[in-house]
Amino acid sequence: xxxxxxxxxxxxxxxxxxxxxxxxxxxxxxxxxxxxxxxxxxxxxxxxxxxxxxxxxxxxxxxxxxxxxxxxxxxxxxxxxxxxxxxxxxxxxxxxxxxxxxxxxxxxxxxxxxxxxxxxxxxxxxxxxxxxxxxxxxxxxxxxxxxxxxxxxxxxxxxxxxxxxxxxxxxxxxxxxxxxxxxxxxxxxxxxxxxxxxxxxxxxxxxxxxxxxxxxxxxxxxxxxxxxxxxxxxxxxxxxxxxxxxxxxxxxxxxxxxxxxxxxxxx
Length: 267
Prior knowledge:
Elements: H1 8-32, H2 37-55, H3 59-71, H4 77-89, H5 93-104, H6 111-121, H7 134-139, H8 141-145, H9 148-171, H10 178-204, E1 207-210, E2 214-218, E3 227-232, E4 236-243, E5 246-252, E6 255-260, E7 264-266
Antiparallel strand pairs: 1-4, 1-7, 2-3, 4-5, 5-6
Helix pairs in contact: 1-2, 1-4, 2-3, 3-4, 4-5, 5-6, 9-10
């Protein structure tokens, strides 16, 4: 494992980003908790306390504040990003990468998130040779360009717009070029299909992050089962099956086994 001592430049970078994100995260929390003003007020207080603790270097207290917000059901890219930052400063590589990956579902193109996630991944000892081919990312660029939430909004918006156009065409007895309607239908199909695929992937093809520094992947559910291989903090895996308090995970070809559920953070 590489030395996890934080560089001064990354600390300054993360601190500046945390301050910049303060206003946006407070607004996001207020919107999410609008139906419960008392809880929203409490979350705002927790976030301000987290920022104050982070500025003073008390990252453990800041992490506790942000986790308390998450426990209320609040969710946003900025909140998860800040959690990743304080975990990284606490030298919790696995937890930092987990929160960065969760943030990426909301703000996939945020440059600071991309930078910090790449930096955190530089501490991961296990290199997975199986990654999505570049051609796949090019062909399905919108899946990687937009976050999961934006995909859902685009799918809903395109679908509503399509039906509105068709209804307008029928009631007004207007002729719309077939090519335009076909383009709108294709666009709607793309975003709806992507949203459905993302849902399927999140429910049935879940991914996770190894949280402890070292985890033994075994052939069975007991501690006496054969140790097949070892994974380290921050490694991304696929979750194939859940049984009792264990996950059967897939790391790469030929590397499949069972891990205690608490050792994995589901993205």
